[in-house]
Each structure stands twice: as structure tokens, then as C-alpha cells.
């Protein structure tokens, strides 16, 4: 790097502006290259579309989980490292119930109860897809939220409430411990084996009218279920935060906890609601990820946690709208980067982008725009 | 019978004691000012009434009940409104949402009360849907007062409402406090702008190093040579 030559001309720019400029230039070059690849036919349009679609799907489940992480940060004032394992809790509890119902009379109770830990109850033979077992999968979705909420409330009662006024660092460290305890408690019951629990998704052909708008001939119904459920929940959270008394008091408390207290807002009740909403969404996110990927593993949430943190930090920690925008950026980046780099490295692209954005805007993209 | 009666109050932060045996009372509908040098504990008195400091002894009686140990939401219920000095609005909430939060403990937003507050502070009606954080300091101060008035408190505690206001707005702020008091709400005011505050109030306390130093009517304190020299800059 010839910084020696550049220093004279760039001396009026702050390092942030330099990084920001390089970032924009880099994005510009990549966009131009993308156009070149598409025009020359090196990158078929269909593949570009599927990367984009996958990016949207990924950003939706990252976003669902990110809302809760952002809420706990802004209202309870700590970075909750056990949030990823709440995602895992939702995945295992929800799919266990889906198997208990969907596999009734088809597979052994133990195979169903332990989610195929013994290798029994093949997803195909149980018919574990949204068309063959819609009710089992829907009930599983609801249960994933309920169980995760109960687990989160129990953890709050046992651990976090006792540390409420201890500050962010003790709470953060406690949450790392909770994360490990929760994950290995799940492993103790379900084993550490990764296994397929969802049958291959039904892929009906799209109606001609839709085919003309999007370059897709068929639709993966499991992805469609994920997209619709996630969008509905995100819109629901938005309406709750903007238009209900509870939502307004949550935003008030994330703005200023002391003022909320002297205004008469019952802060413990707001914290309760924060856990219910945040952990419920995390549980559903875990359940939907398994529906999309087909397989389940105890590291599901832990591996996802880094991406969730990246999304939340990118958007400006503490703002749920920022977290959603950050999730979209992260989801699209890990998928669109596949145009240039191999899949093993795609998360590097996401984290590099996050670091560069943070140097450019240390408080995140949406800092100060909207809290909670 | 006093509305608020603080007797022999000791309080502080952590191990640090700020208030030493503070006595203070406010009668129904009275306008009382606390003045004193920086660090005298003026704001600490208000925070202690709301249970936001470390209580170390003494009593705080409001409307015949001992409110020491009450949760803030219960203190509000008894009829005390409090506007802290800094960060006294929710910046990402709109004006109307801030006012709604002021009435949180009620099941429904009292529309007639809202109308009264909009009458008193027309700017709040104009800016109804604007985010509080984007308003000027004076407007935020009015919003903070409006929020505290949503429950029709018997006592309104204001911590340096004129701080940070442009000089031409200070007079206006004091006029509005007079109006609130004329409507029958007792006012307890902490002010840096001591002369103006003493001129307006019924009674004043001079607090020095966490202890009562003087107590008299506002006019008498203004006329007292010692007080003028030590605390009012001559």
C-alpha cells in the first residue's frame, strides 16, 4: 500500500471517511463486476436470483433471532450469549412435538421423543413435510415458541434476575455459562449427532403469472413457509411496538430505564414481555431453520449466534429496525458473495463487511434513528 | 397539615452521604423553592423523595402516608409528579406517546387531561407526532412537564426546568410554572436561577452541603443581606 503518497492528498480526510470511501468504492466495483458477469453470461440470471432468494430467506431467520437479541440488549442492558441456544431450544422442542404428532402410529415413541437419536423414524416414512403433516408442523411451530419462552423465563428467574443491577459484564459472562449449560443439557437428552429430521420439501410449480415476475419455476414450500411465518411475525412485532401500550412502554424503557421507572412504568413487567417476545421469536427461528435446512444439530444456534450478533451490531445495537436491516445485509452478503468466493468462506465476507462498516460508522448503520 | 413533610432525611449514593438531616415541607397548593450552591444536594432531595437514592434515615410523609420504601409507580399513584433535570423525555417516542406514558398507570389515556395539557402547551399539540428527541430543549422541557401533569398530581417536583434554556425562554418557563401553581398544584422547585425562583415562590429553602441553612418566604430570603451575599451574588 502506498500510503506515503496518499497521505498528502488525503490528509483532510478522517480515517473513517477513508474507510467509508473504500467501502463504497469496493461495493461499486462489485456491482459493476456483477453486471459484467451477467451480461457476458458467465453468471446465469437464474443463479443470481437463487443467491438473492437464499439471501432473503437467511436474513429472515437471522432477523427473527436478531429482534430478541436486540431487545434484551436495549431493555435488559446486556449482550445475551445464550440467545443462540434459545434458538436451539426452539428447534429441538418444536420438532420433538412435530414428530410426536406427525409420527403417531408410524414410528416408535422413543424415536419420536428423542428426535431420531436412534436413527429410527425416517422423515420420509413419517411424512415430515408441510403437505403431508401440516398440523404436526404447525403445532410444532407454536410449541417451539412456548417451550423457548418458558425456558427463557426460568433462566431469567434463576440467573439474570439476581444479577439485574450488576451491570452488563457479569450478565454477559453469566449468559455464556447459561449458553453452555443449555446446549449440553439438550445434548444430554438428544445426543450430539447431526441428523435429518425433515423430509424433502414439496416443490410445486409456480403459476404462470408469478413465473413472469420472478425467475423461478417451482417454489420450495418449506422456504415459503419460513418466509411467510417470519414476515408475519416481524410485522406483528412492528405493530406491537408502535401501536400498543406494552410496545410503547418497551420502547420507553429502552430509551431511558430510569425515566420509565419514575414515569410509573412497571419495569419488571416490561422485562417479562421482553423475554416472552424475544425468546419466542428465537425459538420459532430455530424451528424454521430446521424446516429449511432439513437437519438438526445442537450447535445450530451457537453457530448462528455470530451472524445474529453481526446483524444486530451492523444495524446499531439496541434498535430492532436496525437489527432487521443488518440481517438483510448479512443474509444477502453471505449468499451473494458466492458469486466470487467459495461457500466455505462466505461468512468471512459478512464479517469483513461488518468490520468495515463499523470503522466507518462505529454505532452501526441505524444508530440514533430508532430504538427498540 | 403539610402535603409533603420530609423530616431529618439522610440519604446519598452508595456509601457517600449527601443529605444530613434535611427538613422540608410543602403545604397544599404551595410553591416552594430549594436554592443553594452546586453540590448542596438540591436534586438529591427530589431523587430521595422518589426512592432513587440510598436511604439512610428520616421520614418522607406525603398526604399522611410514609412513602419511604414505596416503588416509584406507587409514589406516582399517591399524587407526586417528578420532572428530572436531564433526559426527561423519551427521545424516540413521539410527543403524544410521551404523554401517554405519563398516564401509564391508568387503564385509559384521560382525554380531558390531554386536552388541558395541549391548551397549556399549544406547541405540544402542534408537534403531536414529532419524535421528542428532535425537539428543542425548551419544547422538551414543556413535554416533560406535560408528561408529569398527566395524572393531575397534587405536587409537581421540577428539577432545574430553566437549565439550558435561552434567556428569553426562562421567563416564559417561570410563567408556566406560575400557571400550574395557580391551578392548585403544589410546586417544589430546584433552581440555579435562584433570584427569579425566590421572587416567584411562596417559600424558599437554602440548602448548603446537604443541610438546611435558611428557610423563609421567598421575599424575605431575597431581602436577607447574608443570603444575598453568600448565595445570590450580592
UniProtKB/TrEMBL annotation, chain A:
Subcellular location(s) of the protein: Cell membrane
GO molecular function: L-isoleucine transmembrane transporter activity; L-leucine transmembrane transporter activity; L-phenylalanine transmembrane transporter activity; L-valine transmembrane transporter activity
GO biological process: D-alanine transmembrane transport; L-alanine transport; L-isoleucine import across plasma membrane
Membrane-spanning segments: 21-39, 59-79, 86-107, 135-155, 167-190, 224-241, 270-290, 296-314
Keywords, comma-separated and alphabetical: Amino-acid transport, Cell inner membrane, Cell membrane, Membrane, Transmembrane, Transmembrane helix, Transport
InterPro entries reported in the protein's UniProt record: ABC_transp_permease (IPR001851), BCAA_transport_permease (IPR052157)
Topological type in the membrane: Multi-pass membrane protein
Chief location category: membrane
GO cellular component, one term: plasma membrane
Pfam families named among the record's database cross-references: BPD_transp_2
UniProt key word Transmembrane: yes
Family: Belongs to the binding-protein-dependent transport system permease family. LivHM subfamily.
Name of the protein in question: Branched-chain amino acid ABC transporter permease
TrEMBL record, chain B:
Keyword tRNA-binding appears in the UniProt entry: no
GO MF terms held by the record: ATP binding; ATP hydrolysis activity; branched-chain amino acid transmembrane transporter activity
Database matches in InterPro entries: AAA+_ATPase, ABC_transporter-like_ATP-bd, ABC_transporter-like_CS, BCAA_Transport_ATP-bd_LivF, P-loop_NTPase
Domain of life: Archaea
One Pfam family this sequence matches: ABC_tran
Key words of the record: Amino-acid transport, ATP-binding, Nucleotide-binding, Transport
Boundaries of every ABC transporter domain copy: 4-234
Gene Ontology biological-process entries: L-amino acid transport
Family designation: Belongs to the ABC transporter superfamily.
Full protein name: ABC transporter ATP-binding protein
Native organism: Natrialba swarupiae
Taxonomic lineage from the root: Archaea, Methanobacteriati, Methanobacteriota, Stenosarchaea group, Halobacteria
Amino acid at each position: 500500500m502506498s500510503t506515503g503518497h496518499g497521505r498528502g492528498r488525503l490528509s483532510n480526510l478522517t480515517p473513517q471517511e477513508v474507510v467509508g470511501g473504500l467501502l463504497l468504492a469496493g461495493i461499486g466495483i462489485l456491482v459493476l463486476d456483477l453486471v459484467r458477469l451477467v451480461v457476458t453470461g458467465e453468471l446465469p440470471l437464474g443463479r443470481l436470483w437463487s443467491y438473492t432468494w437464499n439471501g432473503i430467506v437467511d436474513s429472515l431467520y437471522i432477523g427473527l433471532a436478531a429482534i430478541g437479541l436486540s431487545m434484551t440488549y436495549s431493555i435488559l442492558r446486556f449482550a445475551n450469549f445464550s440467545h443462540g441456544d434459545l434458538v436451539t431450544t426452539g428447534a429441538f422442542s418444536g420438532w420433538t412435538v412435530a414428530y410426536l404428532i406427525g409420527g403417531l402410529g408410524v414410528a416408535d415413541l422413543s424415536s419420536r421423543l428423542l428426535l431420531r437419536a436412534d436413527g429410527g423414524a425416517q422423515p420420509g416414512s413419517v411424512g415430515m413435510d408441510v403437505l403431508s403433516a401440516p398440523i404436526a408442523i404447525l403445532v410444532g411451530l407454536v410449541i417451539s415458541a412456548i417451550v423457548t419462552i418458558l425456558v427463557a423465563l426460568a433462566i431469567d428467574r434463576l440467573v439474570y434476575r439476581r444479577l439485574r443491577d450488576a451491570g452488563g459484564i457479569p450478565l454477559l459472562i453469566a449468559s455464556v455459562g447459561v449458553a453452555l449449560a443449555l446446549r449440553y443439557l439438550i445434548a444430554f437428552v438428544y445426543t450430539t449427532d447431526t441428523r435429518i429430521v425433515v423430509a424433502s420439501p414439496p416443490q410445486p410449480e409456480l403459476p404462470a403469472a408469478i413465473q413472469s415476475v420472478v425467475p423461478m419455476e417451482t417454489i420450495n414450500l418449506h422456504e415459503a413457509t419460513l418466509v411467510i411465518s417470519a414476515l408475519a411475525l416481524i410485522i406483528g412485532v412492528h405493530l406491537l411496538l408502535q401501536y400498543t401500550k406494552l410496545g410503547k412502554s418497551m420502547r420507553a424503557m429502552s430509551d431511558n430505564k430510569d425515566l420509565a421507572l419514575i414515569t410509573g412504568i412497571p419495569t419488571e413487567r416490561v422485562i417479562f414481555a421482553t423475554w416472552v417476545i424475544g425468546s419466542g421469536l428465537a425459538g420459532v427461528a430455530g424451528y424454521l431453520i430446521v424446516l429449511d435446512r432439513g437437519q438438526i444439530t445442537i450447535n445450530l444456534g451457537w453457530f448462528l449466534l455470530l451472524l445474529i450478533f453481526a446483524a444486530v451490531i451492523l444495524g446499531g445495537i439496541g434498535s430492532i429496525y436496525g437489527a432487521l436491516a443488518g440481517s438483510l445485509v448479512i443474509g444477502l452478503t453471505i449468499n451473494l458473495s458466492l458469486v466470487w468466493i467459495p461457500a466455505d468462506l462466505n461468512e468471512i465476507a459478512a464479517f469483513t463487511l461488518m468490520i468495515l462498516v463499523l470503522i466507518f460508522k462505529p454505532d452501526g448503520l441505524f444508530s440514533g434513528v430508532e430504538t427498540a | 397539615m403539610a402535603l409533603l413533610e420530609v423530616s431529618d432525611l439522610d440519604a446519598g449514593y452508595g456509601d457517600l452521604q449527601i443529605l444530613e438531616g434535611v427538613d422540608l415541607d410543602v403545604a397544599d397548593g404551595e410553591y416552594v423553592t430549594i436554592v443553594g450552591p452546586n453540590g448542596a444536594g438540591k436534586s438529591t432531595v427530589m431523587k430521595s423523595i422518589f426512592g432513587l437514592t440510598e436511604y439512610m434515615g428520616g421520614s418522607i410523609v406525603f398526604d399522611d402516608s410514609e412513602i419511604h420504601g414505596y416503588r416509584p409507580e406507587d409514589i406516582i399513584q399517591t399524587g407526586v409528579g417528578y420532572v428530572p433535570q436531564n433526559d426527561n423525555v423519551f427521545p424516540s417516542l413521539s410527543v403524544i406517546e410521551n404523554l401517554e406514558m405519563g398516564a401509564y398507570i391508568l387503564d385509559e389515556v384521560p382525554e380531558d387531561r390531554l386536552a388541558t395539557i395541549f391548551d397549556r402547551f399549544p406547541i405540544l399539540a402542534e408537534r403531536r407526532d414529532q419524535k421528542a428527541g428532535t425537539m428543542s430543549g425548551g419544547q422538551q422541557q414543556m413535554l416533560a412537564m406535560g408528561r408529569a401533569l398527566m395524572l393531575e398530581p397534587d405536587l409537581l417536583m421540577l428539577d432545574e426546568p430553566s437549565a439550558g434554556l435561552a434567556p428569553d425562554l426562562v421567563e416564559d418557563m417561570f410563567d408556566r410554572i406560575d400557571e400550574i401553581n395557580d391551578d392548585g398544584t403544589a410546586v417544589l422547585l430546584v433552581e440555579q436561577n435562584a433570584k427569579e425562583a425566590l421572587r416567584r415562590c411562596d417559600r424558599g429553602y437554602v440548602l448548603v452541603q446537604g443541610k438546611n441553612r435558611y428557610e423563609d418566604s421567598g421575599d424575605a430570603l431575597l431581602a436577607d443581606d447574608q443570603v444575598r451575599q453568600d448565595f445570590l451574588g450580592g
